[in-house]
Design a protein that fits this description.
Chain lengths: 735, 402
């Protein structure tokens, strides 16, 4: 018997069937994805009250009206909590913290009330179910998921500097044995339905159209509404919690691996570990409180705010192509040509084909083009094999990708990307050949990491239709594309390039022409600083380790080996313009290694490291021979080296902003994090400066300049900003 | 300030710390009671004169829990007015017990105190008492928690000790211990463990492998490589000592201290208390210290502690005739010898824990006793005991004969 009528709240619609099961349909208006904002919490609260009060309701099925279930919490809401806390903290720190704690745990408290309401809730998952969305599902009493490839669950919070703060840490640790639980929580990876079911996070798997029926049937058959952890005698899986023999086997290594992976730079993961560890020792309600306290502590620190802003908000703005010239109609080429079927060219071609472009891959002859196509196909197949790609998507891409013979094959392309060897003369020849065959309105792009466009543009007939596209390797994984606007590049050309990058699902930053543009220029500063430390007597392993401890993904010497020491040497030579280079310690090291000893880096099997066949790379013992015997490690301050590594990159970024190479501090931030792995916890190179405060950063630079050399001398503009209390993000903001 | 004198000391032989070890059937409390009983008998001691029994025990749980020292007072049939306290400074607990007993005497608050330690590693198990240090992220991160063996390998890597170096040291420990036993150098201190009818269970250290040579040790696989490389602990070591490219794993069961069962006791008192009990002082406790040290290296505390001790005692290395540095791992002793350029012939002259075993809470008092016996045998004056300790600490004691 039905005693209740439908309820339409805005985000949620509520309808009951004859069986007493209420179907709660989640359909956030005006959004493509269901997200949890404050009003969603309030509505869900009202729904819960209705469910509890109405005796006729026997259970609830939660379902999404959208293609995806939910993306989780609205990060704008989190940003608001942080902003309110900061505004209030100066006046009364404890009151501000209390408010932050109470507000940031509202969802957690609500989910706990759902879990203990006495009536079964079943979440029917189709499409992605992430973060706070999944935490709702975990608080519910059962989960049914669609058996299609689009259905994925995960807790990606750590990727934006957060951790699952609505019960996620506590429920996952109580549902899975600790190794799997922590991997799920700290990895942030999305899991397909089969994987989720195998883990035990999903109870039933059915076709999408049968989700609600299955959920109803489960309720009809009876679902336990008291969770295992609400019954006496509950023991967490996998040996029963931290202070057990199993706990002593698990936790020390889990903590060591956290440090190995993060250098202890990421408070989100550190506090997540603590929430899991401390929570497992407590009854669930107190455990949830501890999770909430640690979540609030996380929000109060600088890292979460910086990461949300850069990795989420600023990146999203760039993904929406904020730098696209206004008023140029949206236009994508049907066919894209790629000239140069080597490692980069074939990977770029694969990415284009995956995005749905017809791609013609051309090299000096048909055989080379074919080999490039095979390379691209093999790359796609490998990604299918490791399940990073759906088989159907790969097959469609393969059909879009053809190998052409001769540059004439490029004639129909609306965009041609030149990806030949990184050498000005070679590129000029290739660009001229493209220019000869393409239509007048076709865009020609050169894929280069550092060669100034000014030296290439006159090789094409219409330099206004020419620009640079700096793709990063490996192309399938690197999200950034550096779009280089040459001196004559027109708006329509830039717009088309940005539209293509957007279509590829990558994030563009738009930079002006100049040696090394933005990314390579800052990378060179990092590598150079590492080499300089070597010459100061810092032990080579220490240079490398401290680079990683500072938060960089790779030590500077290993990175130099990847780039190639011959390339690095030429870059340094060019930047020093000849004569001065003989006195430059960094140039001396590169020259001693590359031209003098033939140690060209990884590609040559020897650089700063030796690369024994089949063995692990090891620093070349011969380094001491010409950089001198290292000083004792105890005489060197690790914090000082870490600071130099970050400051030298941030300062190079300031120069790039001052010179107009980078126009918007947001692009510097996102570009640094996505392009060369500048530590995300800082928010990126510009946020690092703003986070310290421009005044403190300028003072730090001056001090470093006095001690370590003029390369640290801050530009005038920084002093001006510092004096006025300004920020880079305030000063350098486009639109 | 009264002086604290050492009047006597005894220890059990060390039984192999496994179910097939000779002392496995002897409970922790009985091990402790055996050394207390021996002290009473040897010295015809009126136990009512003893203020307190301070016993080190590193895993004080189960049968070793709940103040094992007070339990031992009952089990040994001592006067019920003798108090008991169990203390824990990990591997230096036995030495710390000596230092605390000495402190009570030197401050004039106690007259006669027994200090020692007990550990039945075969019955209770190493690590049985748990604790937050390895598992609680709040502690494990700032302390750079590492398994001790990885820390020992880090010391070897950082200070340049090769596999051959650490193995050679272990061979020498075995040789010296065998010679000391053969010449009866431990005879005065070791009391056999017997059953209720007096049938001996163990009269000699059971863990020794006399005749061990370099070749035999070279065949052993490093024990801590998998932990270091796979569980992420090498990365923790390198993060704390970034000049190291890779940790070289050189330690194994043959050059690390043995897991054994045993107990020890030292009788410490003021001059007046000794006279009242009819005892003759054998040595004066001149100074003692404990200190924190680098937690990632963890086991270099003997260097820091020795430095601090010599300053505290206004003494110099030249004043010290013999050293006992606990052989937790070969590299610990090698590093301490290296740091002070000690003469290896003055260090651990009768072998140590690599040959005879390290009954965690008891070892410190054993080392003090071994040192005193040897000072007397050689008629030397001054000796120093230094011990490395988990979580990065060092404890050291300076004694001189009277």
């Amino acid at each position: 018997m039905q005693t209740f009528g439908p309820l339409d709240l805005g985000c949620f619609r509520f309808e009951a069937g004859d069986d007493g099961v209420a179907v709660l349909t989640w359909d956030t208006p005006g959004r493509s994805m269901n997200v949890i904002a404050e009003w969603a919490i309030e509505e869900l609260d009202a729904v819960l009250a209705r469910v509890v009060d109405d005796a006729a309701i026997t259970g609830v099925v939660v379902v999404s009206a959208k293609a995806e279930f939910s993306g989780g919490a609205d990060l704008a809401l989190i940003e608001r909590l942080i902003a309110d806390y900061r505004a209030a903290a100066a006046a009364d720190a404890v009151a501000a913290a209390t408010a932050l704690f109470e507000r940031s745990r509202r969802l957690s408290v609500l989910y706990r009330r759902i879990e203990t309401c006495g009536k079964p809730w079943v979440v029917a998952i189709a499409g992605r179910c992430l973060g706070g969305g999944l935490e709702l599902a975990l608080a519910a009493h059962a989960r049914v998921a669609a058996d299609d490839g689009a259905t994925r669950i995960g807790l990606p919070e750590v990727k934006v500097g957060l951790f699952p703060g609505a019960g996620g840490t506590q429920r996952v640790m109580r549902m899975l044995e600790p190794e799997r639980a922590l991997t799920f929580l700290t990895g942030g990876r999305e899991h397909g339905t089969a994987e989720a079911a195998a883990l035990g996070l999903v109870d039933r798997v059915v076709p999408r159209e049968r989700l609600v029926d299955e959920a109803r049937a489960m309720i009809a058959a009876g679902i336990e509404t008291v969770k295992p952890w609400d019954r006496s005698g509950f023991r967490p899986p996998g040996g029963g919690g931290p202070y057990t023999p199993a706990g002593y086997r698990f936790w020390p290594a889990a903590i060591a691996r956290y440090r190995q992976e993060t250098s202890d730079n990421y408070p989100a993961v550190r506090l997540l570990l603590r929430a899991a560890f401390e929570g497992l020792q407590l009854p669930i309600d107190r455990a949830l409180t501890v999770e909430s306290r640690l979540f609030a502590e996380l929000l109060a620190g600088p890292e979460a705010a910086a990461m949300i802003r850069t990795v989420f908000a600023e990146k999203r703005a760039l993904d929406r192509l904020v730098r696209r010239p206004a008023g140029v109609p949206h236009r994508l080429p049907d066919t894209v040509g790629v000239l140069g079927a080597g490692f980069m060219g074939s990977a770029i071609a694969a990415a284009l084909a995956l995005a749905g472009f017809e791609v013609v891959l051309v090299d000096r002859d048909a055989a080379a083009a074919s080999r490039g196509r095979e390379t691209a196909l093999a790359g796609l197949a490998e990604r299918v094999r490791v399940r990073h790609l759906e088989g159907a998507a790969a097959e469609a891409a393969m059909r879009c990708l053809t190998a052409g013979e001769g540059t004439e094959a490029l004639s129909g392309a609306g965009l041609v990307i030149e990806a030949v060897f990184e050498d000005a003369a070679t590129k000029r020849a290739a660009l001229a050949a493209i220019s000869d065959v393409v239509a007048d309105d076709a865009v020609i792009a050169t894929n280069t990491s550092a060669l100034p466009l000014a030296g290439l543009a006159d090789a094409v007939r219409r330099p206004e239709r020419f620009l640079g596209l700096h793709f990063f390797s490996p192309v399938d994984r690197m999200r950034l594309v550096e779009v280089i606007r040459g001196g004559e590049t027109d708006d329509a050309t830039l717009a088309l390039a940005l539209d293509v990058v957007g279509r590829l699902g990558k994030t563009p930053i738009v930079v002006a022409d100049g040696r090394g543009f933005y990314v390579s220029r800052v990378v060179a500063a990092y590598v150079g600083e590492g080499v300089r430390m070597l010459t100061e007597g810092v032990p080579p392993a220490m240079v490398e380790t401290v680079g990683r401890l500072a938060g960089m993904p790779t030590g500077p010497l290993a990175l130099a080996d990847e780039i190639g020491l011959d390339v690095a040497w030429r870059v340094v030579e060019a930047s020093l313009a000849g004569a001065a280079s003989s006195g430059d310690p960094v140039a001396r090291v590169f020259s001693a290694l590359a031209p003098e000893r033939g140690r060209l880096g990884r590609k040559g099997g020897a650089g700063f490291y030796d690369y024994p066949a089949g063995g692990r790379k090891a620093l070349w013992p011969g380094l001491a021979g010409f950089v001198g015997r290292p000083r004792p490690a105890e005489t060197i301050r690790v914090e000082g080296l870490k600071q130099r590594f970050l400051v030298v990159q941030a300062l190079e970024t300031v120069r790039a902003l001052v010179e107009g190479v980078v126009a918007d501090a947001r692009e510097a931030d996102v570009g640094s994090v996505l392009g060369f792995g500048f530590p995300a916890f800082t928010g990126g190179t510009a946020s690092y400066v703003d986070g310290l405060g421009t005044a403190r950063f300028a003072a730090m630079c001056s001090e470093l300049a006095d001690r370590h050399g003029e390369r640290f001398r801050p530009p005038m503009l920084l002093a001006e900003l510092a004096a006025g209390g300004g920020t880079l993000r305030g000063r350098f903001a486009v639109a | 300030m009264p002086d604290a004198f050492v009047y006597d000391h005894v220890r059990t032989p060390r039984g192999r710390g496994k179910p097939d070890g000779a002392l496995h059937e002897v409970s922790t409390v009985r091990l402790a009671a055996i050394v207390l009983a021996a002290l009473r008998e040897r010295n015809d001691l009126d136990t009512a004169l003893v203020d307190d029994v301070v016993l080190g025990c590193v895993d004080p749980v189960g049968e070793a829990g709940g103040d094992v020292a007070r339990a031992a007072v009952f089990a040994a049939g001592w006067d019920r007015r003798v108090a008991g306290v169990q203390i824990n400074r990990f591997c230096a607990s036995g030495l710390e017990a000596v230092n605390m007993a000495a402190a009570a005497v030197m401050s004039g608050q106690h007259e006669l105190v027994v200090a020692g330690g007990v550990e039945s590693m075969s019955r209770v198990g190493i690590g049985a008492s748990g604790g937050a240090w390895p598992v609680d992220p709040w502690v494990a991160l700032p302390s750079s928690f590492l398994p001790q063996g990885v820390a020992a390998d880090l010391i070897a890597t950082k200070y340049g000790f090769s596999r051959d170096d650490v193995d050679a040291y272990a061979v020498e420990s075995q040789r010296r211990a065998a010679q000391a036993w053969a010449e009866g150098r431990f005879a005065r201190s070791v009391v056999p463990v017997c059953d209720g009818l007096g049938i001996p269970l163990l009269a000699r250290d059971e863990h020794m492998r006399p005749g061990t040579d370099l070749r035999a040790l070279a065949a052993l696989e490093p024990s801590f490589r998998a932990l270091g490389e796979q569980a992420g602990f090498d990365a923790v070591a390198i993060a704390a000592h970034p000049e190291i490219e890779a940790v070289r794993h050189v330690h194994h069961a043959g050059n690390s201290s043995g897991i054994v069962d045993g107990a020890s006791a030292v009788l410490i008192g003021s001059e007046e208390a000794g006279e009242a009990a009819g005892l003759t002082p054998r040595a004066r406790i001149r100074a003692f210290v404990s200190t924190g040290s680098d937690p990632a290296l963890m086991l270099t505390g003997p260097v820091d502690a020795t430095d601090k001790l010599l300053r505290r005692a206004r003494a110099s290395l030249a004043d010290v005739d013999l050293f006992e540095i606990n052989e937790a791992f070969s590299a610990v002793v090698l590093r301490t010898v290296q740091a002070f350029e000690l003469d290896p012939d003055e260090v651990n002259v009768n072998g140590g824990a690599i040959a005879m075993g390290h009954p965690l809470g008891a070892t410190g008092a054993m080392l003090l006793g071994t040192l005193l016996d040897e000072l007397e045998r050689r008629d030397l004056a001054c000796g120093l005991v230094a011990m490395c300790i988990g979580a990065g600490m060092g404890t050291a004691t300076l004694i001189e004969r009277v």
